[in-house]
Amino acid sequence: MSTRWNETHDVVVIGSGGGGLTAAYTAGSAGLRTVVLEKSEYFGGMTAYSGACLWLPGNHIAGKTEEGDTPERALEYVRVLVGDSAPEEMQRAYVTNAARVVEFLTQNPALRFHHGPFPDYYDAPGRVPGGRGIFPAPLAGAELGDLAGNLRGPMAKHRFGREMDLSRLDGGRALIGRLLLAVSGLEAVKLQSGTSFTDLVIDNGRVTGVVARHGQQTTRIRAERGVVLAAGGFEANAELRRRWQGRDSEWTNAPETHTGDAIVAGIAAGAAIAGMENAWWATNLAYPGGKSAFIVGFHGGLFVNGTGRRFANESLPYTQMGQAIVDLEAMGEPALPVYWIFDDRFESVPCIVEVEPDREELRAAGLWHTADTIEGLASRLDLPGEVLAATVARFNSHTASGVDEDFHRGEDEFDLFFARGDGPNPCLVPVDRAPFHAVRIGLGDLGTKGGLVTDPDARVLTESGTAIPGLYATGNTTASATGNVYPGPGAPIGTSMVFGFLAARHLAAGSVAPQPA
C-alpha cells in the first residue's frame, strides 16, 4: 500500500546540532531539497551548549599556526588511542576527511573560524603541541534576525533561568548561528523547529521518509534521496540509560529532548548498535534543585571519594576524570559523590563554570560545606576525619616539593594549560588557609556515544553489515568513530560534522528512491 505524503524533499535531516546543520548545508549546496526537523523550539542541540572547539585534524586554519599537523600524524594518534574500540575504517574516514570539511565550509563567508590553543587530551604519538582545535568566530546576535529567538542556549539561561546578555554569540551558539546563516541562505533548505520525529517510513527495505508531529498535526514527509539521523544520543532518557548503562540521566549536560528517538527508530528499521555503554564523560558541579552543570579548567583543590582519599589527577581532561569515576564504580569503590576540597584563598570554585554558583544557595541546599579545620569539614561530609586530614597533609607536601607522587598532576601539557599557581608546580596549590570548603562533584556527560553502526559514508548498517538503503546517521545517534576514547577537544562535534558532510555527499551522488505504486 502506498504512503500518502504531506510533503516531499530530497533529504530529511533529523536534528539541528553541528552534524545535522552541516549535513543540511552540504546537501543544500549540492541543490538537494532539504528539510531540517528539530524536536524542540530551539535549534542547536548539545552543540549550542558547548565551547565549540572543533577537533578537525589537518585543517588549513590550524595549519597556519601549528607545524606538523597532518592527517597522517592525526591518524597515528587516533589509532594508538582508539585501537579496536571502533572500526579502523571509521577512524580513517573521520581523520582524513576533517580538513575537507573545513575547506568546504569556509568557502561560505558566514562560516569563519580561528585557531585557539587547547591541548590534545593524551600524550601519545601524533599529538600536536598546542592542540589542533579551531573555534567559530564570535557573531552578533542581530545578524541572525528572526532566527535569533530560535537559537538554543546558553545553558545558564535555558536550564537555570539566569539573565544574560545575548547580543554576542560565542562558542557553540556562534557555531550554530553561523551554520544557520549559511543554511538559511540556500533556497533548497527549509528549517522547521517544534517538530518531533516519530518514525521512519520503509518501503521494500528502503527508508523513503519519516513521520513527524508538529503541534497536534502528524505529517508524513517523503525523502527521495534519504534520511539523515542527527538527533543526539539517549543521554536524557532515564529508561534507556538504565537499560544500556545502568545509571540515570539526571546528570547529563544535554538538552532534555535528547531521548534516543532516532536510535530507537533505527533499531526498529534493522540497524545494528554498538558502544552503548560509552559516553563523553564529564565532571559536573551539583546545584540546588537536582540540577548540575559541566565544569572544566580546575586550578585548585583536590578531589576525594567516599574513603576520604584522592583517586586521580584532578587536572585530567574532564572525560578522563569521568572515566576514573566509572572505573572506581567497576572496582566496587565508593565512587560517588566526589567531594572537591579547597581553601579560602578562592572566592568561588577554582575552575571555569558555565553557571556561576551562588555560595549561599548551595550552602542552603547542603551542597557547599565549610569548616575551620579539615577534621571539622570531614565531619560535615561524613568522611573519616583522620584519613581526610592525612590526605590533605600529603597533598600539601606535594605542593611544597612540586611533585605529585601519587597521580603526577602537573606533568602533562593539558594539566598546565589551566594552571594558575605560583609554586614549583603551578598545578599544585596548597590547601592550608582556613576556613576550608567542599562542594559536590558528580559524573556528568556531554552525551552518550553509542548508537547506530555506520560505514564511512555514514550509511546505517544492519547486523550483517549491509547498508539500509536511504538511511544515514551521524553524531551521538551513532556508535562513535573514536570508540571509547575522547582524543581531543571538539571530537564530539568534529566527528558529527565530518559524517554529516559525508552523508550529504553520498546522498548527492546517489539515486532517487522509486515512487511506490
Structural description of this entry:
There is one protein chain. The protein has 517 residues and is α+β, with helices and mostly antiparallel strands. The chain has helices at residues 18-29, 60-63, 71-82, 88-105, 155-158, 171-184, 238-245, 261-268, 318-330, 359-364, 374-381, 385-401, 413-417, 491-509; strands at 7-14, 34-37, 113-115, 134-136, 139-140, 168-169, 189-192, 195-203, 206-214, 217-229, 273-274, 279-287, 291-296, 302-304, 338-343, 352-353, 368-371, 436-448, 451-452, 459-461, 467-473. The strands form 5 sheets. Strands 1, 2, 7, 8, 9, 10, 20 and 21 form an 8-stranded mixed sheet that branches. The longest helix has 19 residues, at 491-509. The radius of gyration is 23 Å and the shape is globular. It starts with 6 loop residues before the first strand and ends in an 8-residue tail after the last helix.
Provide a short characterization of the protein structure.
With 517 residues, the chain is of the alpha+beta class. The chain has helices at residues 18-29, 60-63, 71-82, 88-105, 155-158, 171-184, 238-245, 261-268, 318-330, 359-364, 374-381, 385-401, 413-417, 491-509, and strands at 7-14, 34-37, 113-115, 134-136, 139-140, 168-169, 189-192, 195-203, 206-214, 217-229, 273-274, 279-287, 291-296, 302-304, 338-343, 352-353, 368-371, 436-448, 451-452, 459-461, 467-473. The mean pLDDT is 95.
What descriptive keywords fit this protein?
alpha+beta; seven-stranded antiparallel sheet
